[in-house]
Specification:
about 75% helix; Rna Polymerase Sigma Factor, Chain: A; 2 domains; disordered C terminus
Length: about 200
């Protein structure tokens, strides 16, 4: 059974819904550290856990108007943290499973063919460098989409730009990355499909 919110928390929630930043800061200061520890229990990565919790608080602030007037902020934050952690692990597991299947299937490839591929770490470095060369807004949009798993609508809300702008920036980012990767395209094609974040 979900615990009921205290009268004090309901009052602060109402103030936050009205746009009171101090009310939001109260919830942030109250729950941030505990939520980071909670998420880190799933992910075993302190920096990633902090990023996820920060995203959850950003989402809380953006959606403050739509929260129920008797919402338990504590339950809301812990539930959101758990769901986002499990989604991240599920996506990582699926990516690893695809990569493992590729490796298993590639056992039948001759050594001569295998030699045509660059080392995995070298490929990863090339991809990272391609992303780093993007213009600042392009790079932010691309990373929020590929690393953060956000929809174009969520990115537009997070960055304060139109959805159409997000779409345009993603198109520019993908085109620029393809241009940069063109000399390595034969070697990198399969890995580029497998790696959604780098």
């Amino acid at each position: 059974m979900e615990p009921k919110a205290t009268d004090e928390n309901l009052f602060i929630l109402q103030k936050m819904a009205e746009g009171d930043e101090d009310a939001f800061k109260y919830f942030f200061d109250t729950y941030y550290d505990d939520l980071c520890n909670f998420v880190n229990g799933y992910l075993r990565d302190e920096k990633l856990s902090e990023d996820i919790v920060q995203d959850i608080f950003i989402y809380l602030w953006e959606k403050k108007d739509s929260l129920s007037s008797d919402c338990s902020i504590k339950s809301y934050l812990y539930s959101a943290s758990k769901n986002k952690s499990l989604n991240y692990l599920r996506n990582a597991k699926n990516k690893n499973r695809i990569a493992e299947n590729f490796i298993l299937q590639s056992d039948s490839v001759s050594n001569e063919s295998a030699d045509q591929f660059l080392e995995f770490e070298e490929l990863k470095k090339i991809l990272c460098n391609a992303v780093e060369k993007l213009p600042p807004q392009c790079k932010t949009v691309y990373r929020l989409s590929r690393d953060g798993g956000l929809t174009y609508k969520e990115i537009s809300e997070k960055m304060g730009i139109a959805v159409k702008t997000v779409e345009n920036q993603m198109s520019i980012a993908i085109k620029k990355i393809k241009d940069i990767l063109q000399p390595y395209y034969d070697q990198i094609f399969i890995f580029f499909l497998l790696l959604k974040s780098f």
